[in-house]
Amino acid sequence: MKTLPVAIQVFSIREEAEKDFVGTMTAVKEMGYDGVELAGLYGHSPEKIRDILKEIGLTPISAHVPYHELVEDLEGTVSQYATIGCRYITIPYLTEDYRYGTKNFEEMMGNIPGIAKECAKHGITLLYHNHDFEFEKMEDGTYVLDYMYQNTTNEELQTEMDTCWIGVAGEDPIEYIRKYAGRSPLLHLKDYTNNPFHFQPLGKGIQDIPNLLKEAVNIGCKWVIVEQDGHPDRAPMEDMKISRDYLKTLEW
After folding, report:
1. Whole-prediction pTM value?
2. Coil vs helix vs strand at 191
3. What is the mean pLDDT of residues 42-58?
4. Which CATH class is domain 6-248?
């Protein structure tokens, strides 16, 4: 069976990356990760980030880039990540003043085609990464997240589904991501426990990781990305090693 390359979302180890980017990336590579999804530049120039990752042997597959950075300096921001070599730029989150029901939300939706066009000039695909608030239902019963994709084309916006937040919103992650077959180049793998809610390394929570991986292959994902927003029980680097080691034990 096909096996997808595995990246780490650097937000998971943000403090470590900020203190020692080179050392942290070297450790990530030693854990067995194939690539990274950036969440900032950690005090380095794009050229420096590119060179560090190339020397270590990690693919800069994607970057989480806040919407406001894209609209404030679209050409300059996209150019930075093109320099690094990112193939995808992902809008990671919408602050409350840009969510459904606000004027800013409609403005953001109107800006998506232009952002995607600028990305495409550099060979970059624009994605959106969900949380749970996009599963608010509109007047007709449609989820806001589905509305976002129904009102953009595949060329304008593709998905980076976060499997944790799909589950938190009450949907089955495996069934939900199936809806976006062919439009989901990247998939976030994130595990968690309930009662109380805690983020956990892969294999330590309630997610059906083996079948999520199989479905990722089925729907045409190019990469899976391990993310853990918080680390209530262990050090961040330890958690990320547990997740990567767990994936190595699976047949998928």
Report:
1. 0.97
2. strand
3. 98
4. alpha beta
